[in-house]
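User: Here's a chain of 352 residues. Predict its fold as C-alpha coordinates.
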Amino acid sequence: MYKIVSIPGDGIGPEVVAGALAVMNRLAEKHGFTIAIEEHPFGGASYDLHGEMLTEATLEACRNCDAVLLGAVGGPKWESLPHEHKPEAALLKIRRELGLFANLRPAKVYDALIDASSLKADVVGGTDFVVFRELTGGIYFGQPRGYDENKGWNTMVYERYEVERIARIAFEAAQKRGGRVTSIDKANVLEVSQLWRNVVHEVHRDFPEIELSDMYVDNAAMQIVRNPKQFDVIVTGNLFGDILSDIAGMITGSLGMLPSASIGKSHALYEPIHGSAPDIAGQNKANPIATIASVAMMFEHSFCMPDVANEIYQAIETTLAEGLRTADIANAGQSAVSTTEMTAAIVKNLGQ
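Assistant: Prediction complete.
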Protein backbone atom coordinates (compact mmCIF):
# COMPACT_ATOMS: atom_id res chain seq x y z
CA MET A 1 0.00 0.00 0.00
CA TYR A 2 1.20 3.50 -0.86
CA LYS A 3 0.32 6.27 1.58
CA ILE A 4 -0.06 9.62 -0.16
CA VAL A 5 -0.75 13.01 1.38
CA SER A 6 -2.91 15.11 -0.95
CA ILE A 7 -2.58 18.88 -0.54
CA PRO A 8 -5.00 20.55 -2.99
CA GLY A 9 -4.03 24.03 -1.79
CA ASP A 10 -5.48 27.18 -3.34
CA GLY A 11 -7.08 28.42 -6.55
CA ILE A 12 -7.17 25.73 -9.22
CA GLY A 13 -5.26 23.35 -6.94
CA PRO A 14 -8.29 21.29 -5.85
CA GLU A 15 -9.43 20.87 -9.47
CA VAL A 16 -6.12 19.66 -10.88
CA VAL A 17 -5.39 17.45 -7.88
CA ALA A 18 -8.80 15.81 -8.33
CA GLY A 19 -7.79 14.96 -11.91
CA ALA A 20 -4.47 13.51 -10.77
CA LEU A 21 -6.12 11.39 -8.10
CA ALA A 22 -8.58 10.02 -10.68
CA VAL A 23 -5.62 8.84 -12.76
CA MET A 24 -3.94 7.39 -9.70
CA ASN A 25 -7.07 5.50 -8.66
CA ARG A 26 -7.50 4.09 -12.16
CA LEU A 27 -3.94 2.79 -12.19
CA ALA A 28 -4.36 1.23 -8.74
CA GLU A 29 -7.47 -0.55 -9.98
CA LYS A 30 -5.74 -1.65 -13.19
CA HIS A 31 -2.56 -2.97 -11.60
CA GLY A 32 -3.95 -4.24 -8.31
CA PHE A 33 -2.08 -2.08 -5.82
CA THR A 34 -3.61 -0.04 -3.01
CA ILE A 35 -3.27 3.68 -2.33
CA ALA A 36 -4.41 5.51 0.78
CA ILE A 37 -5.08 9.23 0.30
CA GLU A 38 -4.97 11.58 3.28
CA GLU A 39 -5.93 15.21 2.50
CA HIS A 40 -4.49 18.18 4.38
CA PRO A 41 -4.80 21.98 3.97
CA PHE A 42 -1.83 24.13 3.01
CA GLY A 43 -1.23 27.73 2.02
CA GLY A 44 -4.14 30.13 1.95
CA ALA A 45 -6.64 27.34 2.54
CA SER A 46 -4.82 26.45 5.75
CA TYR A 47 -4.54 30.09 6.80
CA ASP A 48 -8.29 30.57 6.46
CA LEU A 49 -8.92 27.49 8.61
CA HIS A 50 -6.13 27.66 11.18
CA GLY A 51 -4.49 31.07 10.95
CA GLU A 52 -1.23 29.61 9.63
CA MET A 53 -0.09 28.51 6.19
CA LEU A 54 1.51 25.25 7.30
CA THR A 55 0.29 23.51 10.42
CA GLU A 56 2.31 21.01 12.39
CA ALA A 57 -0.38 18.40 11.63
CA THR A 58 0.10 18.82 7.88
CA LEU A 59 3.87 18.76 8.24
CA GLU A 60 3.77 15.62 10.38
CA ALA A 61 1.52 13.87 7.86
CA CYS A 62 4.04 14.74 5.12
CA ARG A 63 6.85 13.30 7.21
CA ASN A 64 5.00 10.00 7.57
CA CYS A 65 3.84 9.24 4.04
CA ASP A 66 5.33 7.73 0.90
CA ALA A 67 4.79 10.84 -1.24
CA VAL A 68 3.11 14.24 -1.18
CA LEU A 69 0.96 15.59 -4.04
CA LEU A 70 0.54 19.38 -4.02
CA GLY A 71 -1.82 21.34 -6.26
CA ALA A 72 -1.09 25.07 -6.04
CA VAL A 73 -0.59 27.69 -3.38
CA GLY A 74 -1.26 31.39 -2.94
CA GLY A 75 -3.42 34.10 -4.47
CA PRO A 76 -4.35 37.80 -4.17
CA LYS A 77 -6.36 37.16 -1.03
CA TRP A 78 -3.19 36.55 0.99
CA GLU A 79 -0.69 38.83 -0.77
CA SER A 80 -1.00 41.61 1.81
CA LEU A 81 0.12 39.37 4.66
CA PRO A 82 3.61 39.92 6.15
CA HIS A 83 6.32 38.12 4.20
CA GLU A 84 6.84 35.45 6.85
CA HIS A 85 3.14 34.53 6.72
CA LYS A 86 2.70 34.37 2.96
CA PRO A 87 2.05 31.04 1.19
CA GLU A 88 5.47 31.19 -0.47
CA ALA A 89 7.12 31.21 2.96
CA ALA A 90 5.23 28.04 3.79
CA LEU A 91 6.55 26.45 0.60
CA LEU A 92 10.10 27.25 1.62
CA LYS A 93 9.44 25.83 5.08
CA ILE A 94 8.02 22.52 3.87
CA ARG A 95 10.98 22.08 1.52
CA ARG A 96 13.39 22.76 4.35
CA GLU A 97 11.60 20.61 6.93
CA LEU A 98 11.34 17.62 4.56
CA GLY A 99 14.87 18.08 3.25
CA LEU A 100 13.70 18.41 -0.36
CA PHE A 101 17.01 19.55 -1.81
CA ALA A 102 16.49 18.62 -5.48
CA ASN A 103 13.76 19.95 -7.74
CA LEU A 104 13.36 18.07 -11.03
CA ARG A 105 11.54 19.93 -13.81
CA PRO A 106 11.27 18.16 -17.16
CA ALA A 107 10.78 20.23 -20.30
CA LYS A 108 9.34 17.98 -22.97
CA VAL A 109 7.52 19.14 -26.08
CA TYR A 110 4.73 16.77 -27.06
CA ASP A 111 4.50 16.26 -30.81
CA ALA A 112 0.83 17.21 -30.82
CA LEU A 113 1.61 20.53 -29.12
CA ILE A 114 4.45 21.83 -31.27
CA ASP A 115 2.14 24.51 -32.67
CA ALA A 116 1.23 25.66 -29.14
CA SER A 117 4.73 26.96 -28.53
CA SER A 118 5.53 30.59 -29.23
CA LEU A 119 8.68 29.38 -31.00
CA LYS A 120 8.96 27.84 -34.47
CA ALA A 121 8.19 24.15 -34.75
CA ASP A 122 11.66 23.32 -36.07
CA VAL A 123 13.19 24.98 -32.99
CA VAL A 124 11.14 23.22 -30.30
CA GLY A 125 10.38 19.91 -32.00
CA GLY A 126 12.15 17.08 -30.17
CA THR A 127 12.94 19.14 -27.07
CA ASP A 128 13.34 16.86 -24.06
CA PHE A 129 15.52 18.00 -21.17
CA VAL A 130 15.26 18.18 -17.40
CA VAL A 131 16.34 20.92 -15.00
CA PHE A 132 17.84 19.86 -11.67
CA ARG A 133 17.37 22.87 -9.42
CA GLU A 134 18.99 22.97 -5.99
CA LEU A 135 16.07 23.72 -3.70
CA THR A 136 17.09 24.30 -0.09
CA GLY A 137 20.12 26.59 -0.38
CA GLY A 138 21.12 29.72 -2.22
CA ILE A 139 19.62 33.17 -1.93
CA TYR A 140 16.14 32.03 -0.89
CA PHE A 141 17.51 30.66 2.38
CA GLY A 142 20.74 32.62 2.96
CA GLN A 143 21.20 34.80 6.02
CA PRO A 144 21.33 37.69 6.74
CA ARG A 145 18.32 38.99 4.88
CA GLY A 146 15.91 41.86 5.36
CA TYR A 147 14.93 45.35 4.30
CA ASP A 148 14.21 48.78 5.67
CA GLU A 149 12.97 51.97 4.06
CA ASN A 150 16.33 52.61 2.41
CA LYS A 151 17.65 49.21 1.35
CA GLY A 152 16.98 45.52 1.10
CA TRP A 153 19.53 42.71 1.40
CA ASN A 154 19.76 38.97 0.76
CA THR A 155 22.64 36.52 0.98
CA MET A 156 23.43 33.91 -1.66
CA VAL A 157 25.43 31.14 -0.02
CA TYR A 158 26.19 27.51 -0.89
CA GLU A 159 28.10 24.94 1.11
CA ARG A 160 30.14 22.23 -0.57
CA TYR A 161 27.83 19.37 0.44
CA GLU A 162 24.80 21.15 -1.04
CA VAL A 163 26.45 21.41 -4.44
CA GLU A 164 27.87 17.89 -4.28
CA ARG A 165 24.54 16.16 -3.70
CA ILE A 166 22.61 17.98 -6.43
CA ALA A 167 25.47 17.51 -8.90
CA ARG A 168 25.66 13.80 -8.14
CA ILE A 169 22.01 13.07 -8.84
CA ALA A 170 22.18 15.18 -12.01
CA PHE A 171 25.07 13.07 -13.30
CA GLU A 172 23.22 9.90 -12.30
CA ALA A 173 20.19 11.06 -14.26
CA ALA A 174 22.36 11.79 -17.30
CA GLN A 175 23.57 8.17 -17.20
CA LYS A 176 19.99 7.10 -17.93
CA ARG A 177 19.37 9.81 -20.53
CA GLY A 178 21.61 11.38 -23.15
CA GLY A 179 24.84 11.45 -21.17
CA ARG A 180 25.21 15.25 -21.08
CA VAL A 181 25.12 17.69 -18.18
CA THR A 182 25.15 21.48 -18.46
CA SER A 183 26.01 23.28 -15.22
CA ILE A 184 24.58 26.81 -15.05
CA ASP A 185 26.22 29.50 -12.92
CA LYS A 186 27.49 33.09 -12.92
CA ALA A 187 31.09 32.31 -12.03
CA ASN A 188 32.45 35.34 -13.85
CA VAL A 189 31.03 37.71 -11.23
CA LEU A 190 29.86 35.65 -8.22
CA GLU A 191 32.22 33.91 -5.81
CA VAL A 192 29.42 31.55 -4.77
CA SER A 193 29.17 30.46 -8.40
CA GLN A 194 32.91 29.84 -8.56
CA LEU A 195 32.54 27.40 -5.67
CA TRP A 196 29.56 25.85 -7.48
CA ARG A 197 31.60 25.32 -10.64
CA ASN A 198 34.61 23.91 -8.80
CA VAL A 199 32.54 21.37 -6.88
CA VAL A 200 30.53 20.26 -9.92
CA HIS A 201 33.77 19.54 -11.74
CA GLU A 202 35.10 17.58 -8.77
CA VAL A 203 31.95 15.40 -8.72
CA HIS A 204 32.28 14.93 -12.47
CA ARG A 205 35.47 12.93 -11.91
CA ASP A 206 33.26 10.08 -10.67
CA PHE A 207 31.30 10.17 -13.95
CA PRO A 208 33.95 10.31 -16.69
CA GLU A 209 31.54 8.92 -19.29
CA ILE A 210 29.26 11.96 -18.91
CA GLU A 211 29.92 15.08 -20.99
CA LEU A 212 29.99 18.19 -18.77
CA SER A 213 29.80 21.78 -19.96
CA ASP A 214 29.48 25.09 -18.09
CA MET A 215 27.24 27.96 -19.12
CA TYR A 216 26.56 31.38 -17.64
CA VAL A 217 22.94 31.86 -16.65
CA ASP A 218 22.27 34.80 -18.98
CA ASN A 219 23.56 32.79 -21.94
CA ALA A 220 21.55 29.77 -20.78
CA ALA A 221 18.33 31.82 -20.86
CA MET A 222 19.08 32.76 -24.47
CA GLN A 223 20.12 29.25 -25.47
CA ILE A 224 16.96 27.63 -24.08
CA VAL A 225 14.97 29.85 -26.43
CA ARG A 226 17.42 29.67 -29.36
CA ASN A 227 18.14 25.93 -29.39
CA PRO A 228 16.48 23.96 -26.57
CA LYS A 229 17.34 20.61 -28.15
CA GLN A 230 21.00 21.10 -27.22
CA PHE A 231 20.22 20.35 -23.57
CA ASP A 232 19.85 16.98 -21.83
CA VAL A 233 20.33 17.56 -18.08
CA ILE A 234 20.71 21.06 -16.62
CA VAL A 235 21.94 21.46 -13.04
CA THR A 236 21.86 24.83 -11.33
CA GLY A 237 21.19 26.73 -8.13
CA ASN A 238 17.92 27.75 -6.55
CA LEU A 239 17.41 31.21 -8.05
CA PHE A 240 18.72 30.40 -11.52
CA GLY A 241 16.75 27.15 -11.63
CA ASP A 242 13.55 28.93 -10.68
CA ILE A 243 13.89 31.34 -13.60
CA LEU A 244 15.22 28.93 -16.24
CA SER A 245 12.60 26.27 -15.62
CA ASP A 246 9.83 28.82 -16.14
CA ILE A 247 11.43 29.88 -19.43
CA ALA A 248 11.49 26.20 -20.38
CA GLY A 249 7.81 26.02 -19.49
CA MET A 250 6.88 28.64 -22.01
CA ILE A 251 8.71 27.00 -24.90
CA THR A 252 6.64 23.87 -24.34
CA GLY A 253 3.44 25.84 -24.89
CA SER A 254 2.06 26.33 -21.38
CA LEU A 255 3.08 26.15 -17.74
CA GLY A 256 0.01 23.95 -17.41
CA MET A 257 1.97 21.18 -19.13
CA LEU A 258 4.97 20.94 -16.81
CA PRO A 259 5.27 18.68 -13.76
CA SER A 260 7.93 18.72 -11.07
CA ALA A 261 9.36 16.55 -8.33
CA SER A 262 11.06 17.82 -5.20
CA ILE A 263 13.17 15.05 -3.75
CA GLY A 264 15.20 14.57 -0.59
CA LYS A 265 16.92 11.70 1.12
CA SER A 266 13.72 10.33 2.70
CA HIS A 267 10.81 12.39 1.34
CA ALA A 268 9.40 13.57 -1.98
CA LEU A 269 6.80 16.12 -3.04
CA TYR A 270 5.23 16.31 -6.50
CA GLU A 271 3.51 19.36 -7.95
CA PRO A 272 2.80 21.20 -11.20
CA ILE A 273 4.99 24.25 -11.71
CA HIS A 274 2.06 26.52 -12.52
CA GLY A 275 0.49 28.82 -9.95
CA SER A 276 -2.96 28.89 -8.41
CA ALA A 277 -4.51 30.84 -11.33
CA PRO A 278 -7.22 32.52 -9.21
CA ASP A 279 -8.74 34.11 -12.33
CA ILE A 280 -10.05 30.71 -13.49
CA ALA A 281 -10.39 28.93 -10.14
CA GLY A 282 -13.63 27.02 -9.76
CA GLN A 283 -14.51 27.34 -13.46
CA ASN A 284 -13.41 23.85 -14.57
CA LYS A 285 -11.00 25.41 -17.10
CA ALA A 286 -7.61 24.51 -15.63
CA ASN A 287 -5.21 22.19 -17.42
CA PRO A 288 -4.71 19.05 -15.25
CA ILE A 289 -1.88 17.60 -17.37
CA ALA A 290 1.00 19.04 -15.33
CA THR A 291 -0.43 17.57 -12.14
CA ILE A 292 -1.16 14.24 -13.81
CA ALA A 293 2.39 14.16 -15.18
CA SER A 294 3.62 14.91 -11.65
CA VAL A 295 1.92 11.66 -10.61
CA ALA A 296 3.90 9.93 -13.36
CA MET A 297 7.07 11.30 -11.76
CA MET A 298 5.82 9.99 -8.42
CA PHE A 299 5.48 6.47 -9.80
CA GLU A 300 8.91 6.72 -11.38
CA HIS A 301 10.92 8.20 -8.51
CA SER A 302 9.09 7.30 -5.27
CA PHE A 303 7.46 4.00 -6.19
CA CYS A 304 10.10 2.73 -8.68
CA MET A 305 7.41 1.86 -11.23
CA PRO A 306 8.72 3.39 -14.49
CA ASP A 307 6.38 1.28 -16.63
CA VAL A 308 3.36 2.77 -14.87
CA ALA A 309 4.85 6.25 -15.27
CA ASN A 310 5.22 5.61 -19.00
CA GLU A 311 1.57 4.55 -19.19
CA ILE A 312 0.61 7.99 -17.91
CA TYR A 313 2.89 9.80 -20.35
CA GLN A 314 1.53 7.72 -23.23
CA ALA A 315 -2.07 8.40 -22.21
CA ILE A 316 -1.33 12.13 -22.20
CA GLU A 317 0.32 11.89 -25.62
CA THR A 318 -2.62 9.92 -27.03
CA THR A 319 -5.17 12.36 -25.63
CA LEU A 320 -3.36 15.32 -27.13
CA ALA A 321 -3.03 13.51 -30.46
CA GLU A 322 -6.81 13.07 -30.43
CA GLY A 323 -7.06 16.86 -30.49
CA LEU A 324 -8.26 17.58 -26.96
CA ARG A 325 -7.09 20.92 -25.59
CA THR A 326 -7.82 22.92 -22.47
CA ALA A 327 -8.06 26.66 -22.96
CA ASP A 328 -4.41 27.38 -22.20
CA ILE A 329 -3.14 25.18 -25.06
CA ALA A 330 -5.99 25.60 -27.56
CA ASN A 331 -5.25 27.34 -30.85
CA ALA A 332 -7.30 30.32 -32.00
CA GLY A 333 -10.76 29.14 -32.98
CA GLN A 334 -10.24 25.72 -31.42
CA SER A 335 -12.85 24.62 -28.89
CA ALA A 336 -11.49 23.91 -25.43
CA VAL A 337 -12.41 21.04 -23.14
CA SER A 338 -12.86 21.34 -19.41
CA THR A 339 -10.61 20.08 -16.65
CA THR A 340 -12.87 17.11 -16.02
CA GLU A 341 -13.19 16.29 -19.72
CA MET A 342 -9.42 16.28 -20.18
CA THR A 343 -9.05 14.09 -17.11
CA ALA A 344 -11.70 11.64 -18.28
CA ALA A 345 -10.02 11.30 -21.68
CA ILE A 346 -6.62 10.58 -20.12
CA VAL A 347 -8.17 8.02 -17.75
CA LYS A 348 -9.86 6.35 -20.72
CA ASN A 349 -6.59 6.21 -22.63
CA LEU A 350 -4.91 4.43 -19.75
CA GLY A 351 -6.68 1.38 -21.14
CA GLN A 352 -7.97 -1.77 -19.54
